[in-house]
Every structure is written in structure tokens, then in C-alpha cells.
Amino acid sequence: xxxxxxxxxxxxxxxxxxxxxxxxxxxxxxxxxxxxxxxxxxxxxxxxxxxxxxxxxxxxxxxxxxxxxxxxxxxxxxxxxxxxx
Length: 85
Known about the structure:
Blueprint: E1 4-5, E2 9-14, E3 25-29, E4 44-49, E5 55-58, E6 67-72, E7 78-84
Antiparallel strand pairs: 1-2, 2-7, 3-6, 4-5, 4-7
């Protein structure tokens, strides 16, 4: 459902809903406007996309991180949960 932004977890439902969209859609997600979830550069995070197995993601020197290949199967979207290890 909604956004979760705490010191330990960042979670959001990623959607792709626009005229002519053909599912599934695959996107890379780089969360930018995080308020509480601010792991340090070099930290290794666990990102879970829907029911898939978690994947490791490393925080860049800039403080950003990207979760590649987030699959969105339909207009309902896909839940993305990122946790500190």
C-alpha cells in the first residue's frame, strides 16, 4: 500500500500506469526523497521486489542507490522493500 520511510526500512509500491502501457514493465528505481532511511555510502542493503528473493544493493558515494530490473506486472504495481542488512 503506502510509503514506509524509517531508519531501517524504505518501502514503496512502484507503478507504471499510462496510456498504451504493455505489461510487464521493467524499471530501475533510485529512491531520492527519503526522509529517515539514509544508509551511509558503501552500505550493502537488501532489496526485495514483490515475492522475489532479496538482492544486495550497495549505496553509492553520493548516498544514492539503485534497484535494477524492478518488474511491474500490472496496474496494481509492485511492492519494493529495502532494508539495512
